[in-house]
Structures are given as C-alpha cells and as structure tokens.
Amino acid sequence: MEFLTVALAVALPAMVSAFSQGWATTRAMDNMGRQPEAAGDIRSTLLVALAFMEALTLFAMIVAILIWTKV
Amino acid sequence: MIEALQHVIAHVLRYEVFRIGPVVITSTVVTTWVAMALLLGLVYLLTRRGFEERPRGAQAFLEIVVEFFYGMAEQFMGREGRKYAWLYGGLFIAILFLNYAWMIPGAIPPTSDLMTPVALAVVAVPMTWVCAVRKKGVKGWLRHFILPSVALLPLNILEQLVRIFSLSVRLFGNMFGEEMVTMTLGTMLPLFGPLPIMALGLIFGAVQAYVFSVLTVSYLAEMVQGH
User: Fold this and answer.
1) Domains of chain A: residue spans and CATH
2) Which tens digits make up the pLDDT trace of B94-132?
3) B75 in A contact zone (CB under 8 Å)
4) Cα–Cα dist B128/B145, whole Å
5) How far apart are CA B151 and CA B48, in angstroms?
6) What distance in Å separates residue A55's CA from the closest CA in chain B?
7) Which of B89, B90, B117, B199 can bridge B69 by disulfide, Cβ–Cβ 3.0-4.6 Å?
8) B193 touches chain A (CB under 8 A)
9) Shortest CA gap A51–chain B (Å)
10) What pLDDT score was predicted for residue B7?
11) B132 CA to chain A: closest CA distance, Å?
12) Is the ipTM beyond the 0.85 threshold?
C-alpha cells in the first residue's frame, strides 16, 4: 500500500505533465513547419516552457521521496 | 529482487570518503574535484597555443562555444547580454561537466546530490541581483520589487526565493531520477538493461545544463532590463 502511494505520487503528475509537454511540443512543431524562419526562437522558448512543466513532476518526485523515506 | 530494489537508493546517495578533522569530504566533493581537474586541463590544452587572427583548430572550436553563449543571451536581452556571458556560460560549462562526471565508472554525478544544485542556484539568482545593482543602482534594484504595485512586495520576494528553489530542484530531480532509473534497471537486467537510459542521460545532461543557463539568462534579463 505504501509503495502504491509512492508510485502513484510520481506516476500521476508524470502522466499529466507528459500530456501537456506533448501538446506544447506538437504546437511548437506545427508552427516551426509553418514558419521555418522562426524555428530558432520557437525552439528556445519551447525548451524553457518544457522545463517549467518538468519542474512540477520533479516537485512531485521530491514529495514521493519524502513519503518513501518517511520524513 | 524486491530486497535488492529496496537498497537501490543507497547506491545513488553520497557517501563519506574521508574526513579532515571535523569536515567530512563526501563522494560529491571528490567527483567535483575530478571534474574541475578535467575542465582545467581541457582549458589549458585548448588555450595553450594562444589566439590568432585567423581561427583554426582549438580556437575555432572555442569561438563556436562563445558564439553559442552569445546567441543564447541575444534572444532575451539583445547585444547587452554578451556582457554577462561569464555568468551563464560558466554555469553551463560547470553543470555540463558535473553532469557528465556520470560517465566516470563508479562515480555518482555531483548534480544528483541536492547540495550541488542548491549551491549553484544560490549563487546564480543573487548574482542576477548584483548585475541589476551594478546597472541600475540599489534604488533601481529595490524599485523592481514594488512594481507594478507596493501590494505585490511579498509576492515579488517570494518569487525570488521560488526561483532558487525551482532552479535547484529541477537540476537535482532530473539527474537523480536518471540515476535512480539506471540503477533500478541495472539491478533488474544487469549489464545491457540500463544502456538506452544511459544514452538518454547523455542528452539530458546537456539539456539540463542548457535549461539552467537559459533560465538564468531570462531571470537576468528581467532583473537588468525589466521596468
């Protein structure tokens, strides 16, 4: 039960953030194809946006580790 | 196997190597020293021949690196960003080498110990304040906190603290997660199991270094040029 809690605490945020990252990347790629001259700008903005989404999963991972080690 | 998996976390945590008096020297510090030595040796080798008018060999490579750093800042703050290449460029190279210290057999990457990313972020974010003070003076820097209204002062201060937290946790989480997955796969399928994840780790190491320095640049742009 405890392991299930820890696993879900990482897995659910990971699912949501994977969906949202995929969505953001899809849009970025669409628009890179539409205007290739802006590809550089879009790519760097995309990387920063992905980093912010990634951070939420990582916060969840920290919480999961705290539950696991029973802090 | 469950038994073995429960002990995986013990293999990715820092351990004590030796101690000088009361000061404990952990594996993180030793690996950082090795990465520093490699970096210093590389810099010595690359700059040994001096610089010429027409770049070739090592100098051409160094110019590509510097151009990359300049390009990174120019998207956020224009040509002025070139002045701050020492900050985000240094962070990029340092984090890249600390991440790739993973490739040394038996070494735990220093960035997968929470203390290293926290140290880097605690330097990076206040350094953007220092740059803002040097550009706009103390008053200009303090004015930043009461804009757009005085009521937002607590939120603005909180934002700066959250920046330190999120910068460090992002780097730590990525490297630690990478290490954990590799270790778990290595326990379940020894030898070739973790190979794809390790290849992914090479990309992630570079991407995380890039993300850390790009975020530093964007914070810098907001502090130095905003308002």
Assistant:
1) 2-68 (1.20.20.10)
2) 999 999 888 888 788 888 888 899 999 999 999 999 988
3) yes
4) 14
5) 55
6) 5
7) B89
8) no
9) 7
10) 74
11) 22
12) no
How many angstroms separate the Cα of B97 from the Cα of each of B36, B93, B171? 8, 6, 13
- B227: closest CA among B163, B154, B135? B135
Q: Are A25 and A46 in contact (CB under 8 A)?
A: yes
Would an 8 Å CB–CB cutoff place B210 in contact with chain A?
Answer: yes
Task: Answer whether B70 touches A (CB < 8 Å).
Answer: no
Residue B118, chain A, CB below 8 Å: the answer is no
How far is the alpha carbon of B40 from chain A, nearest alpha carbon, in Å? 29
Q: 3-state class of A38 per DSSP?
A: helix
Q: Note the pLDDT tens digit of each residue in A21-37.
A: 999 999 999 999 999 88
Residues B161-186 pLDDT 10s = 998 988 898 898 888 888 888 888 88
Ordered per-residue pLDDT tens for chain A, 71 residues: 778 888 898 899 999 999 999 999 999 999 999 998 888 888 888 888 888 888 888 888 888 888 887 76
Specify the residue for token string 């920046």: B163
Say how far apart CA B141 and CA B9 lie, in whole Å: 43
The residues on A that touch B, with CB distances below 8 Å, are: 40-41, 44, 47-48, 51, 54-55, 57-59, 61-62
Q: B50-74 pLDDT, tens per residue?
A: 777 777 778 888 889 988 899 888 8
Cα R_g (chain B), whole angstroms: 20
Q: Which residues of B touch A41 (CB under 8 A)?
A: 75
Give residue for tokens 């039960």.
Answer: A1
Closest to B210 measured CA to CA, from A38, A41, A55, A48:
A48
SS3 label, residue B23: strand
Show me where the domains of chain B are located. Answer: 2-225
Closest CB from B72, B170, B176 relative to A54: B170
